[in-house]
Amino acid sequence: MAPGLFGAAAALAVAVSLAVHVALNCPIDPAPSPPFPAGPRHTPNNLLQGLEKLGAGRLSGPEDVQVHGGAVYTATRDGWLQRMLPDGSWENWRFVGGTGLLGIAPSADGSMLVCDADKGLLRVDEERVTILASTVDGSPIRFADAAIEASDGTVYFSDASTRFGFDLWFLAYLESRPTGRLLAYHPSTGKATVALDNLAFANGVALSHDQAFVIVCESGGYRCTKLWLKGDKAGQPETFVENLPGSPDNIRLATDGSFWIALIQLRSPWLDLVTRWTWTKRVVASFPVLLHAIKATAKGAMVAHVSEDGEILRVLDDTEGKVINFITSVTEFDGHLLLGSLWADFVGKLPLAKVTQAQQQAAAASS
């Protein structure tokens, strides 16, 4: 066989082999990814690099952070709910088990609500762990993610994807199909109902200061959607904020009625290339090693401060993830921001006064 023909035949054999492998092993049915928001980009400031590391080395992937009774709580990948007491000491508070403990929220009865991605919505107190909801309308809650309790006892929580669990979250992101849901657990009936569906990777959940509406973050759509709970618009959804400079993860009510949103930075030249076409998504998803390598190219951390009306007020970042990477939650407490990350071994603590001073100095220098 001539060298040219041999090379062509080899290339064809490789192409056919690849096509067969993808056809037999691809776990996703991808849709086109939404374009990254093309609006005005903020000026990188690296203000998150000034944080203090709390519990460094003892916390494995503290995805969410809450404050309850003066103590700082987080759930870690080793199955523990851990807390930092007011004197700065840490303790293992309650063992739940598993690697999928995500969003946590204090309850009015003193317990802690926990989203276990694998088991559903849990209530954890000093005595026991209780599963509140593991199904909705007869279907399993596959990816419980974040929760918040309203004053009437209703718990609003997200189910990120009806197709993939927490261990395969990146596949849900690549697939780009809106299968997420906002659920509502009703203590009077002991059952959960669907409040909103067709969400693009449903994630963080927060109530407005007057509880007139609930917000759910859509990580796959660079937006947050609000559902009116009171007034003439009760039951109606509408966009709260869109074109965010990152994928919104957890959202938290601030002391003044505004909101803080953690923005995952799922961008890199490789990620942008892979998500450009559905066929490249299929190829990457068919090779676990390649999938992990592409996911690892994402870097950077970002949070946004958003008004009650959905206006972006300011953005803080660590552009290359030098101090903290992949921020998944941000909570305002006692003049500081507490930052959680699945890719960190600490909780970040950043004084807001320091941030404001740095921003004022930067504004003065540019004027």
From TrEMBL:
It comes from the Eukaryota. Its main location: other. It is found in: Vacuole. The lineage of its organism: Eukaryota, Viridiplantae, Streptophyta, Embryophyta, Tracheophyta. PANTHER family: OS07G0614000 PROTEIN, STRICTOSIDINE SYNTHASE-RELATED. Residues 1-19 form the signal peptide. One of its GO terms (cellular component) is vacuole. SUPFAM superfamilies: Calcium-dependent phosphotriesterase. The keyword Transmembrane helix does not apply. InterPro entries: 6-blade_b-propeller_TolB-like (IPR011042), Strictosidine_synth_cons-reg (IPR018119). The keyword Glycoprotein applies. Residues 148-231 form the Strictosidine synthase conserved region domain. This is Strictosidine synthase conserved region domain-containing protein. It holds the Pfam family Str_synth. One of its GO terms (molecular function) is hydrolase activity.
